[in-house]
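Section 5: illustrative case.
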């Protein structure tokens, strides 16, 4: 996905709107959420907790800025981190799963990437991976190639992970409705 965080455009939700929708979907489904953040440094958690009533579904977050925290707290594979670095789709997936496990939530979301000003782990500025892990193995990783300065990249990463999470929650909810209605 290529994106430019230069405004919301017509029909494009803001991070705050996505956060409110995510929390409402989780509450409706009786779900909970945990977040693991690297490049966003707590911005996803801040956006979620800015929504009144977030405590009903949001369990907490781990700001895993250091590679050792990704490994030691979230359980990201150490060999993977050594071989590929922290900016990797599988690292993002494992971070989301680790947040779920460590914080006891039904859903996990994660961000990892390069906000700049310099490249990291051989990856250019603007390379970001956002991931979602859910119950029963549900999950997804999205690669982003973002433009803009450090603040723009971080802001768009927050919006993107919340949008991915809402998409996965919506898909999961539709699948459950289909099962409950006999596949109709």
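Designed sequence:
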């Amino acid at each position: 996905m290529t994106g430019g965080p230069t405004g919301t455009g017509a029909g494009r939700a803001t991070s705050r709107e996505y956060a409110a929708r995510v929390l409402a979907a989780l509450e409706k489904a009786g779900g909970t959420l945990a977040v693991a953040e690297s490049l966003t440094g707590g911005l996803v958690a801040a956006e979620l907790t800015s929504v009144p009533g977030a405590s009903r579904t949001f369990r907490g977050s781990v700001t895993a800025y250091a590679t050792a925290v990704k490994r030691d707290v979230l359980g990201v594979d150490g060999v993977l981190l050594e071989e590929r670095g922290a900016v990797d789709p599988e690292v993002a997936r494992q971070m989301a799963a680790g947040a779920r496990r460590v914080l006891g939530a039904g859903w996990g979301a994660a961000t990892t990437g390069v906000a700049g000003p310099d490249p990291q782990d051989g990856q250019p500025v603007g390379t970001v991976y956002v991931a979602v892990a859910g119950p029963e193995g549900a999950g997804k990783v999205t690669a982003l190639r973002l433009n803009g300065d450090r603040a723009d990249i971080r802001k768009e990463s927050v919006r993107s992970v919340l949008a991915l999470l809402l998409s996965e929650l919506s898909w999961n909810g539709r699948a459950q409705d289909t099962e409950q209605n006999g596949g109709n």
